[in-house]
Write a structure and sequence with these properties.
heterodimer, A: mainly alpha, MetI-like fold, 2 domains, 15 helices, 2 strands, flat, B: 324 residues, mainly alpha, 0% strand
Amino acid sequence: METNTVTERKVQQRSTTKSKTKKVLKEMYKNKVAYLFLMPKLLFFFLFMLVPIVWAFILSFQEFNIMGSTWIGFDNYITAFQSKVFKVSLWNTFLYTVVTVPAFVITALIIASLVQPLGKLSQSFFRAAFYLPTVTSMVIIAMVWRWMYNYRFGIFNYIIGWFGFEPVNWLGQSDSALPALMIMSILIPPGAGIIIYLAAMNDIDQSLYEAARIDGANAFQRWLRITIPMLKPTTLYLVILSTIGSFQVFTQIIMMTGGGPGNATETIVHVIYKTAFRDFKFGLASAQSVILFFIIMIFAIFQYRTLRDHH
Amino acid sequence: MKPKQVNQKVGKMLIYITLIFMAIVSLLPLYWVFATSLQLPSYQNETMEEPVNYVESTPPKLYPVGVKEYFHQWQKREAAEDAGNDTQAAYHDEKMDEVVTKTFEGFVILFERTNIMKWLLNSLYISIVTTVAIVLIDTMSGYVLAKKKFPGKMIIFWAIISTMMIPEQVTLVPTFMMVQKLQLFDTHWALIFPSLALAFGVFLMRQFLLAIPDELIEAAKIDGASEWKIFWTVIVPLAKPAMAVLSIFTFVLMWNSFLWPIIVLNDENLLTLPAGLKTLQDANLASFKLLMTGATVAAIPMIVFFLLFQRYFVKGLSMGGVKQ
C-alpha cells in the first residue's frame, strides 16, 4: 500500500515537472522573437566574455603549452607571489592608486564647486576646457609628457629652473620615475569627475541652502554641511571608478618608461602584458590577472563599505 | 556699493582667475603637442652663425618660432624692395618659403613616409563599424530585456550586467586565445567582435527603454505591425537620445583603445592610430617634431568630435553618475 502511494507520488511529481518544463518550453516558443532579438548579443557575450572569464580561471591553474596544457594546481599563484617583479608591481600600483585617486576626486570636487555657482555659459566653457584633455588618447598624452619630462629639452626642467632648481632626470632615475608618473596623472584634469559632480550638484534641492542661509550659515559652512554630504553617493561612485581605472594603469608605462628604470615603474597590467605576450607564459599571466581581479574586487567592496557607513 | 557686494565681486574675480589658471595648466600639454609639431627644425637666417634646431633648444621655445621668423623675413623683404635691392629681396623671399616648408614639413614627411593615412582610416573604419553594430544589437537586447516577459530573462540580464565591472585585462589572455582559435588574429574583426560583448550598452538601453509606456507597443501590435517593424518604427525613434550617448561612448572607446590593438594586430598596414603612434615612437628614428605631428593628427579628429557632440558627452557622463 505504502510503496504504492510513494510511486504514485513520484509519478505525479514527474508529471508535474514534466508539465512544468513543457509549460516553460511553450512559453519560450511563444516568445521566440525575444530570443531572436537577444541572439546577436548573446553570441558575442558568450564567445568573448563568458568563455574568457571561465577560461581565465582554468588557465591560471595550468601550465600552458601549444601541444597541450597540464594542470599544476596553485603553482602559478605561488610563482607569481614569489616573483620580485610582480611584488614590486603590486606595490607600485598600490602607491600609484593611493596617491592619484584622492587627488582625482578632490580636484574634481574643488573645481566643480568653483564652477557650479557661475553662470550657465561659464559652466559649459570650463566643463569643455577641463574635459577636452581627457578625450585625447592616453597614448598622445603620454608621448607629450615624455617629451616634457626630457632631461635636456623638456619644459619641466625649464619651469623648475625659474625657481632655482637643478634639472631633474625625471623618467631616467628610479627614485623620480614613479613620482613623475603620479604628477602627470594629478595634473591631467579630472574631466569626467568634474562633469559628474556638476550634474549631481545641480540636482541638490535649493531649499536646503535657503534654510541654511536663514540660519546664518556662510558659504563655506553651507558647502561643508550640505554640498559634501549630499554628494556622498557621487563621491563613492567616483572613488570606486577611479580606483578600478588606476589599478589598470598601463599606457603611460609602456609609452614612457617600459616599467623602468629597473623595476621602478612596473605596474600589474604591464607585468601581465609582458608575461603573456613577451614570455608567452599564458598560465602565469592568467594567475596574475585573477589576482588583479580579486584585488580590485576587495578594494571596491572595502571602499563601498567605508564610504557608505562613514559620515 | 556696499562692502559686502565688493567682497562678493572680488571673490568671484578670484574664482575666475583660479579656474582660468587651472584650465591653462590642463590644456598646456595639448598646446605643447601642437606647438612642437609646428616648431622650426634646423634653420639659419642672415643673423645666425650656425643652424639652430628650435625643437631641441634650451631653453625650449614656447611658441612655433616660424611664425615670428616669417614676419621678420617679410619685413626684411619689403624693406629690400623699397630700397630697390632685388637680390636681397629674393633672398628674403626664399627664406619665407623655407620657413613655411620647414614649419609644416612634419606633416609632409608623416603622410609620405609612414602609414599614418592607413592608420587613420583603420581607426575610423573600426570605430564606425563597432559603433553601428553595438548600438544596433544593444538596442535590440535592451528593448527585449526592458519590455518582454520570457523565461530566463533575469538570468540573462544579470549575467550580462555582472561583467560590467570586470576590467578587460582580466580576460586578456583567454580572449587572445579565442581570437586565435577563431583565426581572427591580425584582422580588424579581432578588435570589433570582442567589443560587441561589452555590457554597458545593454544596461544603458534597458534603463532608458524601461521608461517607455507599454501602450505605444500595444497600439502598434493592434495595428498588426510585426515585431521587427515595431522595433524600427516605435522603439528606435524613442530610443534615439540613449542611442546617441551610446554611439559617442563606443566611438571614443574604440578610437582611443590601445592595449588590445597592440596585442592582436601585427601587420603595420592594419594598425589603428594609437598603435601606429607607438611604432613611430619605438622606431626611435622619428624626431620629436615628427612624433608630435603624429600626435596632432591623432588628436584633432577627437577634439573636433568632442566639440561637435559635447552635449552628449555631458549627458552620458551625468547618466553614469546618477545610476550609483
